[in-house]
Fold:
Amino acid sequence: RLQPATLPQVKETVKLLEEVGSKYGKTAAQTALRWVLDQPGITSVIVGASSVAQVDENVGALGWRLEPADWQRLARMTWPLSDGLRPHDTLCRWHPKDSADVTVRR
Structure:
């Protein structure tokens, strides 16, 4: 949940998504979707779109992978945001607690 106290961390996360995405020629949204798709055990994501342009942007998350170092940077950045979530705040209550031990799917 977005709270005033977490807004600075959320802004930093968006900046990191933009930075990592630019390395691959992708948007922050495409990078975020790719990061979720690269999670162990995840086979799809639920996305919404109200225009053809949004569908096209979502499709841009397919057909490429994040390098392990980039995946781990995103995992480390987002962990503090999800650490305090309760089980009913997320669909599966998943986040890598120690991203150094996580293997990115290839």
